[in-house]
Every structure is written in C-alpha cells, then in structure tokens.
Amino acid sequence: QVQLVESGGDLVQAGGSLRLSCAASGSISSINAMGWYRQAPEKERELVARVSGGGTIAYADFVKGRFSISRDKAKKTLSLQMNNLKPEDTAIYYCAAARSWFLIRADYWGQGTQVTVSS
C-alpha cells in the first residue's frame, strides 16, 4: 500500500502563489506516475498536472504557464508550484499516484488540501 499526504493549501489573494507538497510513504517502489487533481464545489474532479514514470510532464490547459509540477528522484515527494492564482483555482487539491507508467487512472489518493483564492 501507498500513503499520500498533501500539505500547503491555504487562503491566498488573487495573483498570489502557493506551493503544494505530497509526501509518499509505504510501497513507493510500486509507484510510477504521479499527479495533482482538483475538485471545486459542485464540479467533477479534474486533472491539473501529471508526471509519468519517465518524467514526462503534462498540464491542463487552464494552468499552463502558471503552475509547475516537480518530483524528486526517489519519488518520495511531489510538488505543485502555483503562481498567479485566480479565484477559479479554488478547490480541494488531491495528490494521486499510479502503478502504471502514465497517470490514466490513479491507484492511490491523498486526503486533499484546500486552496482558496479570494478576489
């Protein structure tokens, strides 16, 4: 089993920045792909950014140029640097991990961290 714990969520004004972190523990050798999802109130969970087992990175169009995902070589920590935040970025952000090479369907989820952006 793998445990994922997010941190870094907060209340921030529009235009501000936050850095989310996700610490993985347990059977981390089974993890290949990781990523960040978010879910706003009354909306479906959506992919924000992901990194494959080989380090290939992809972003959702709505965060390109503003967010940056990174992962350490030991795959123990995943980060999401969020700049120029907008009120529509308000959501619970979830860390996800998969045994597959690409993050298509997560096998593990964190509990989420709240990001609130005020206008």
Q: Tell me the helix content.
A: under 10%
SSE string, helices as H and strands as E: EEEEEEEEEEE
What is the number of strand segments?
11
Multimeric status of the protein: single chain
Shape call? globular
- Stretches where pLDDT is under 50 for at least 5 consecutive residues are none
The computed structural class is mainly beta
Mind telling me the C-alpha Rg?
A: 13 Å
Average the pLDDT over all residues and give the rounded result.
96
Q: Give the amount of beta strand, in percent.
A: over 45%
Terminal residue distance: 40 Å
Tally the helices: what do you get? Answer: 0
Q: Largest sheet, if any? A: 7 strands, mixed
Descriptive keywords:
51% strand, 119 residues, 7-stranded mixed sheet, mainly beta, 4-stranded antiparallel sheet
